[in-house]
Amino acid sequence: MPVSRRRWTASASPTRPSPRLMPRNPMTPEQRLLIEQACGKLPLLFAHYADIGDHAALKDLFTADGTYDRPFQPGYPFHGRDAIQSIFRDRPPILVRHIVTNVLVEVVSETKARGTNYVTMLSNHANTEMPQEAGGIFVGGFADEYVLDAGTWRFASRAGHLALHQGGTIPAFPPPTDEARGLK
User: For the residues of 21-58, what is the DSSP string, one character each?
Assistant: First the structure.
């Protein structure tokens, strides 16, 4: 059995990494918290804008080349703000509420972060007057990539998935065209 080489130098130990491995300008805890707060707010704003039908504000949460992969139709990401906005703008009127929980953000650098969150969606497609009975309960989540874009934190990508549902029918969307997805 070969003998392993010692991995620690005189300036390092198992509890103190080598200075070569440490970033030159590490972020302060306050900087990390500010990034976590800004990025953690994005899933909440996304849900709010989707619920109230503010499609222009929703599209501005993304970078110009951002992608969005719908929880009900993973594997068909929409590319670019206009294609993402069209998903919400062009659908029939719907009474919907998204409940966002378990928002976790991992800061990667001063300009990048990633995160996950859960979403519970209740909706009524027959009537938009409140209050209404929900047609079903759908639980899923998102894996998000965030970037600092011209001084504002935005989604670079959102990849959704559906995990559970109770009642209601899972929407069966036809595969979108490449044009609708912003690929042409």
Answer: GS-SSPPPHHHHHHHHHHHHHHHHHHHHHHHHT-HHHH
In a domain, 72, yes or no: yes
C-alpha–C-alpha distance, residues 64 and 68, integer Å? 12
**108-166 pLDDT, tens per residue?**
999 999 999 999 999 887 877 888 888 889 999 999 999 999 999 999 999 999 999 89
The Cα–Cα gap between 163 and 40 comes to 21
In DSSP terms, 140 is beta-bridged to: 119, 162
Four-point Cα dihedral 117, 174, 88, 43, nearest 10: 10
Structural domain includes residue 13: no
| 180: in domain | no
The whole-angstrom distance between residue 110's C-alpha and the CA centroid of its chain comes to: 18
Paired with 96 in beta bridges are 123
Dist. CA 182–CA 184, nearest whole Å:
6
Encoding tokens for residue 95?
């009474």
User: How many domains is the chain partitioned into structurally?
Assistant: 1
CATH number of the domain residue 72 falls in: 3.10.450.50
For 6-55, write each residue's pLDDT tens digit.
333 344 444 454 455 545 558 899 999 999 999 999 999 999 999 999 99
Range of the domain at 142: 27-166
Residue 12 resides in a domain: no
